[in-house]
Write a structure and sequence with these properties.
The chain has 372 residues and is α+β, with helices and mostly antiparallel strands. The chain has 3 domains: 116 residues, conserved putative lor/sdh protein from methanococcus maripaludis s2 fold, CATH 2.40.420.20; 90 residues, Elongation Factor Tu (Ef-tu), domain 3, CATH 2.40.30.170; 120 residues, no CATH class. It contains 5 helices and 19 strands. Helix 2 packs antiparallel against helix 3. It is elongated, with a radius of gyration of 42 Å. It starts with a helix and ends with a helix. Keywords: Coiled coil, Signal. This is Efflux RND transporter periplasmic adaptor subunit. Belongs to the membrane fusion protein (MFP) (TC 8.A.1) family. InterPro entries: Beta-barrel_RND_2 (IPR058792), BSH_CzcB-like (IPR058647), RND_pump_MFP (IPR006143), YknX-like_C (IPR058637).
């Protein structure tokens, strides 16, 4: 083939390829459909996440102050009782007799004193003042003995000191029980406490009255709200941590003392910080970036990330300004030099709708992985 034929072949080939090249460029220059959202600010709530244990606000081992045979048990194991309810009684026959005797002695002493006063009203010189004082003293002694016997009789009875729920009785009716031996325990279950420990670093921001959210494995779909009521004044020497208590309403009495609990204590609100949706973030090795739209031109912007807010957003430490429009879907197709067609603008700080996310199939899952 001569040089002229070769030249014709090259020209023909270039002419055939040129339309395809132009079409390809035309497709690439078409605006990329995207959705955008303005960079917003939030005052992020600082939290402490710890593991604690549910404890009873009040509990007591119920005992008699005397030793005798058990005559009456008014409740069953595990029953709920109210403050003032009589839980159990001992055989108090002798104590009641001693009280009756003390009552009679007191009444007799009062009668003698009253008769003497009546006599002196008629005959002022019938008795000396010393005799009257002795009779008055006998009344006082008899009254003291009566009060003592009255108190002794109470030693034979157990009364609930507060509302709560009983445990198992250690003795039954008819058995002898010694003084100070626990017959049963009583737990106050509404409210209850959650006890946990925080680090020394958090001690400066933890305060009484702050809110806690508590969850337990027995009820995974429920969250219980409480309030901090105690912060230890000193750091534990062994653990190096600070003990904290929070009170939790337990009207249904489903939180039981001894349960382990996940505790989230809300600290103070921090200063406003910039936030963007996590699915707007892309990754390039160790770098994180996103696309900012000005007019219809996207601009790649490297950013420094902070903590996740646990609701689909992430804090931006640097690289953005409040109000800038960032691409939330469609960013996978963007390159420098593209133009964009904004399909919708998501309100600041609002989750992106499923309809908007469907513009670019799979972009949400891809971006979430990359943003990590």
């Amino acid at each position: 083939m001569n040089r002229y034929s070769t030249y014709k072949t090259i020209v023909y080939t270039l002419l055939c390829l040129t339309p395809t090249f132009v079409m390809a460029n035309d497709v690439e220059l078409l605006p990329i459909p995207v959705t955008v959202e303005p960079v917003s600010t939030r005052s992020i709530v600082q939290k402490i996440e710890e593991v604690g244990k549910i404890t009873a606000l009040d509990n007591a081992n119920l005992t008699f102050s005397a030793g005798a045979k058990i005559e009456k048990i008014a409740f069953n194991d595990g029953d709920a009782v109210n403050k003032g309810d009589v839980i159990a009684e001992l055989d108090s026959t002798k104590a009641k007799a001693d009280l009756d005797k003390a009552r009679s002695t007191l009444n007799l002493a009062k009668t003698k004193l009253q008769r003497t006063r009546d006599l002196l009203a008629k005959q002022p010189d019938a008795l000396s003042p010393q005799d009257v004082d002795e009779l008055q003293e006998q009344v006082n002694l008899a009254a003291a003995d009566f009060r003592q016997q009255e108190a002794t009789l109470k030693d034979y009875t157990i009364v609930a000191p507060f509302d709560g729920r009983l445990t198992i009785f250690s003795h039954s009716i008819g058995s002898h029980i010694d003084a100070s031996t626990a017959l049963v325990s009583l737990y106050k279950l509404d409210p209850v406490n959650v006890t946990y420990a925080i680090s020394q670093e958090d001690l400066g921001t933890a305060q009484i009255g702050q809110t806690v959210a508590v969850s337990v494995s027995a009820f995974p779909n429920q969250s219980f709200t409480g309030e901090v009521n105690y912060i230890a004044p000193a750091v534990d020497e062994n653990s190096g941590r600070v003990e904290v208590h929070a009170t939790i309403d337990n009207q249904e009495q489903i939180l039981a003392p001894g349960m382990f609990a996940n505790v989230s204590q809300q600290l103070q609100r921090g200063k406003p910080q910039l936030v963007v949706p996590q699915n707007a973030i892309l990754a390039n090795n160790e770098q994180r970036y996103l696309w900012v739209v000005e007019g219809n031109k996207p601009q790649r912007r490297q950013v420094e990330l902070g903590a996740n807010t646990n609701d689909g957003y992430v804090i931006i430490k640097s690289g953005l300004k409040k109000g800038e429009q960032i691409v939330t879907t469609g960013q996978q197709k963007l390159n420098d030099g593209n133009t964009v067609n904004i399909l919708s603008s998501q309100p600041s700080g609002q989750p992106i709708s499923k309809e908007t996310r469907s513009i670019e199939t799979g972009s949400e899952q891809t971006n979430n992985k990359e943003a990590g």
